[in-house]
Structures are given as C-alpha cells and as structure tokens.
Amino acid sequence: MTQHDPQQDIWKQQVGEAAAKLVEDNMIVGLGTGSTANQFILALGRRVQQGLRIAGAVSSSQASHDLATSMGIPVADLDTYPELDIYIDGADEIDPQLQLIKGAGGALLREKIVASSARRFVVIADTSKLVQRLGLLFPVPVEVVPFAITPVRKRLEALGAVVTTRQRAGQTFITENQNLILDCAFPDGIADPVTLNAHLHAIVGVVETGLFLQMAKQAVIGGADGVHIIQPA
C-alpha cells in the first residue's frame, strides 16, 4: 500500500471538480464510492445548488447515497434509472489500457453494476494510482458468498494468489450484499488481467471481482502538473 500524501487530497479535489464539469443538464449520473468519488459528489452537489438540473442519480453505496442526498442531489435506484448517461468513480490502480483494480472500500459489486449500466464510465484518480502492471500495489478483491468461502479460497490459492479474508476494525468485513471479500495478492503483479478475471469468474461461489476491464472510457488524473485526461493506450 502506498503512504498517504496530503498533496493527494488537493489532487482528488481537483479531479472531482473536473469530473463534475462533465455532467450536463438532464443527465442521469452514477455516483462512485470512496475518497476520490466523494470529491466528485461534493463538486456535483455544488453545481446542482448553483442551478445544474440533472435528471437523477444512482449511488453505488449507502455512503455515497447519504453524501449525495446531503448535497441536494436527487438519488434514486437502478429500478428507476436502469440506464445512466455517465458513471464517475475512483480506482485503486489504473494501467495504461485503463484496466482497473477497484474495491478497496468494499463496494466493488455495486460499483461494477452501476458502471455497467452507464453509457460512459470515467475513472478519476491522482497520479499515485497509475501503474504499468495491475496487482503490484493492491490486491484484487473478490466478493464471495459466505457458504463457499473455504473452497473458493483453495481455488484462488491454486491460481497463485496469496489470499486474505478482509477485516475491518478487527471484524470480518461484510459487504452491503451480505457477502465476504477475499483479497488476492499477486506478488509479481498480474500479467494477463483478462485471463485471470475469466478464471476467477469460473469459480462457483465468486460473485464478482475488483478487476474492471474494458469498462473505463477515459481517466481524469490529477497530479503536480495539474489535471489531465487520459484515453486507453
């Protein structure tokens, strides 16, 4: 894990504000989860308060729902808005093809559902999240049905993963979907994310993975030299 740099908070705020400018009147907006997504939600809320009229929003977690509601953003669900114009969220790692590892906050399943419901997924991050190969800094979170946790763990280990059951505050972490997360570290990184993701999804009991592949259309990246838009390599 990388150490926290106070400068990153400024970069997150800058990319959140830049991403909020991508939202236009009458759009239906997907709201991500996490510290960078929070900056986007705050910036979007300020735009709404200044007169931006979005049709509605769908959040990927209760925390994002609560923050958006507090900012005056009209939040509904995917039953109301099954198709979104844009989804904006952060990531834990971003490679040159805009393949992502997401889910350090534990909302990966709902994040992927909302992202897949959007016509355009924009990932926002600071430069510390840019990597040449996925898996060197962050493990891949795998959401698992509790009943299957032990056989799934054995199959993940057979794929070369160092597997840890996610804990939070000394307790086993339970997702908003009442599942568990197995964090899968790959010491040498992930040479072929597409193949690995296919292997993970073939394991019965796996609900979803934190590999977001061929999903992000562009990245808004903040750093010491300002905010830049990156397209897939």
What features would you describe in this structure?
With 233 residues, the protein is α/β, with parallel strands linked by helices. The chain folds into 2 domains: 6-131 and 213-230, Rossmann fold; 140-209, ACT domain (Alpha-Beta Plaits, 2-Layer Sandwich), CATH 3.30.70.260. Helices cover 29% and strands 26% of the residues. The protein has helices at residues 6-20, 35-49, 62-70, 108-116, 149-158, 193-201, and strands spanning 28-31, 56-59, 75-76, 86-89, 93-94, 100-101, 121-126, 140-144, 162-165, 167-168, 171-172, 180-185, 206-209, 211-212, 218-223, 226-230. It has a 7-stranded mixed β-sheet, sandwiched between helices. The chain is globular, with a radius of gyration of 17 Å. This is Ribose-5-phosphate isomerase A. One of its GO terms (cellular component) is cytosol. Catalyzes the reversible conversion of ribose-5-phosphate to ribulose 5-phosphate. Its EC number is 5.3.1.6. GO terms for molecular function: ribose-5-phosphate isomerase activity.
**Contiguous runs where pLDDT drops below 50 for at least 5 residues:** none
Helix content estimate: 25-40%
Largest sheet: 7 strands, mixed
Between the first and last Cα atoms, what is the distance in angstroms? Answer: 25 Å
What value does the Rg take, in angstroms?
A: 17 Å
Q: In sequence order, what are the helices and strands, one letter per element?
A: HEHEHEEEEHEEHEEEEHEEEE
Number of helices: 6
CATH architecture of the largest domain: 3-Layer(aba) Sandwich
Name the beta content range. 25-35%
* Structural class computed from helices and strand pairing: alpha/beta
Mean pLDDT: 96
Biggest sheet, spatial arrangement of strands: 3-2-1-4-7-15-16
Q: Return the domain count.
A: 2
CATH class category label of the largest domain = Alpha Beta
Strand tally, please? 16
Q: Quick one: overall form?
A: globular
CATH-assigned fold name of the largest domain: Rossmann fold
GO biological process, one term: pentose-phosphate shunt, non-oxidative branch
Family: Belongs to the ribose 5-phosphate isomerase family.
Subunit structure: Homodimer.
InterPro entries: NagB/RpiA_transferase-like, Ribose5P_isomerase_typA_subgr, Ribose5P_isomerase_type_A
